[in-house]
From TrEMBL:
One Pfam family from the record: Oxidored_q4
Family (UniProt): Belongs to the complex I subunit 3 family.
Membrane topology qualifier: Multi-pass membrane protein
Transmembrane segments: 6-32, 64-85, 91-114
EC number(s) per entry: 7.1.1.-
Gene, per the UniProt record: nuoA
Top-rank EC class of the record's enzyme: translocase
Keyword check for Protein transport: no
One MF term in the entry's GO annotations: NADH dehydrogenase (ubiquinone) activity
Organism: Chryseobacterium populi
GO cellular component, as recorded: NADH dehydrogenase complex; plasma membrane
InterPro entries: NAD(P)H_OxRDtase_bac/plastid (IPR023043), NADH_UbQ/plastoQ_OxRdtase_su3 (IPR000440), NDAH_ubi_oxred_su3_sf (IPR038430)
Annotated protein name in UniProt: NADH-quinone oxidoreductase subunit A
Role description: NDH-1 shuttles electrons from NADH, via FMN and iron-sulfur (Fe-S) centers, to quinones in the respiratory chain. The immediate electron acceptor for the enzyme in this species is believed to be a menaquinone. Couples the redox reaction to proton translocation (for every two electrons transferred, four hydrogen ions are translocated across the cytoplasmic membrane), and thus conserves the redox energy in a proton gradient.
Keywords, ordered alphabetically: Cell membrane, Membrane, NAD, Quinone, Translocase, Transmembrane, Transmembrane helix, Transport, Ubiquinone
Length: 123
């Protein structure tokens, strides 16, 4: 097999990664605690000594996930303000217009989400 020398570090890193995963999985299997079969009280789920209520597989409301996605979306907006805040003098008026455009797009998205009722938990 005739590989260029630049591929050798990549292959070494891939081999180390695969080896680490294999050793971790096998180590967890052989060294980890063994569960006894059966339906004993010891194998039941407990949270701080409080008995379990309901099923863990109960689906969440889509509003929960929608709120999480919207939080991430609008939180990422803040990350893009940092480079502007650090270099706002060098960006000049063109940079200011770019940031205003960026904020305007997010305000349009925010008002769209608000008008669609995604932020109303009561509905």
């Amino acid at each position: 097999m005739n590989l260029p020398e630049s591929y050798i570090p990549i292959l070494i890193q891939a081999g180390v990664a695969v080896g680490f995963v294999a050793v971790s999985l096998l180590g967890a299997h052989f060294l980890g605690p063994k569960q006894k079969k059966g339906n004993s009280v010891k194998n039941q789920s407990w949270e701080c000594g409080v008995p379990v209520e309901g099923n863990a597989r109960t689906p969440f409301s889509i509003k929960y996930f929608l709120t999480a996605v919207l939080f991430v979306l609008f939180d990422i907006e803040i990350v893009f303000f940092y480079p502007y805040a650090v270099n706002f003098r060098e960006f000049g008026f063109e940079g200011f217009l770019a940031v205003l455009t960026f904020v305007a797009i997010f305000f349009v998205a925010f008002f769209y989400v608000w008008k669609r009722g995604a932020l109303d938990w009561d509905k």
